[in-house]
Amino acid sequence: MFATGVTIVTARTADGQLIGLTANSFNSVSLNPPLVLWSLASKAASLGALNQVSHYAINVLTAQQQALAEQFARRDIDRWAGVDYRLGVSGAPLLPDVAASFECFNRSRYVEGDHVIFVGEVEHCTHHADRSPLVYHGGRFYTESLLGDSAVEDDKVVQR
């Protein structure tokens, strides 16, 4: 019952195979150095390949990209069918029209319970503040709604 953003983690293996999966377990770890984390089930088919890649990208989806989130969450299909992308600085695929993308060095992994936690060092990122995020809560997709005019910045409330 915790609302999260929705991401698609993408990578490319040394032999050019594209990897992509929907993940809502993304979050910030550190600003200096810039670190983020996400987790993947130990039984996931893509785990072996993701353990081997040096870089991956985290693509933060917009409210208009629910179908893409569902496509990359499905099993036993070509998740990349009909999907446009470009290769980022490190060679990881970047999806178009996302709210943000983080190109990460695959810094470390931790096995905890039935998941592997991936910690990535952000080497390059882009964002589009004008794009509404896709939100996931209680097994359903949502979009954002602004609740007021205040924003939290640098540990203090700023009135706008």
From TrEMBL:
GO terms for molecular function: FMN binding; riboflavin reductase (NADPH) activity. Gene3D superfamilies: Electron Transport, Fmn-binding Protein, Chain A. It holds the Pfam family Flavin_Reduct. The keyword Oxidoreductase applies. The keyword Oxidoreductase applies. Residues 1-143 form the Flavin reductase like domain. It comes from the Bacteria. Keywords: Oxidoreductase. SUPFAM superfamilies: FMN-binding split barrel (SSF50475). Belongs to the non-flavoprotein flavin reductase family. This is Flavin reductase family protein.
